[in-house]
Fold:
Amino acid sequence: MRCYCCSSKSFDECCEPFIKGDKHPSSAEQLMRSRFSAYATAHYQYILETYTKEKQQGLSVEDLAQSAQGATWFALKVHPTLAASSVDSLVGNLVSSTEDSSIDSTVHADAKVEAVTNAEPISKTNLKSISKPITKPITKPNNAIVEFTAYYFENKSMYQLHETSNFSVEDGKWRYHDGVLHDDCGKIKYGRNLPCVCGSNKKFKQCCATKSR
Structure:
């Protein structure tokens, strides 16, 4: 089965090992893709654990599950981002080497969690109201940005979430910190005869549109 993040790999070769904890993402983009797949498969513990420690405070698995209730995430598009690509190449070796050391590979969320901030998690009906500036500057090489558009269905309508996200390396592992939502977030119309947004080369009506039922 093709991975939920719409890469060219299968789920068990792409995001599943990260979600299971068998591997750790070596780039901010890999982490972002695996977090999308975690939303698509309702693995909210992974989503919680891949926030930065600061953002984990005040969040819970229940909060994340409730925020995504009713949404069916079905496609992801990653936009080219110079800042992300330039730092990923620098940090990839750092993350890989750290994984081989004695650092504990599990990030434990605190029992009590802090309120949702910035572009996290998804408040689907009021996306614009939660858009806030990134609170921390991007500084190389331990930070990166990734711009993406995620597509989902809710009540048989199609929505998109377009975000530029801020990622940081903590304890040798990439973590999501916060992000900025773009003005085109929200409900959209997409032609049923157009190529599917997932990149399958099928018509939308013959591909992901069937997931809205």
Notes: Strands lie at 71-79, 143-154, 157-170, 173-181, 186-188. The chain has one domain: 16-101+122-212. The two ends are 20 Å apart (CA to CA). The chain is about 25% helix and 20% strand.
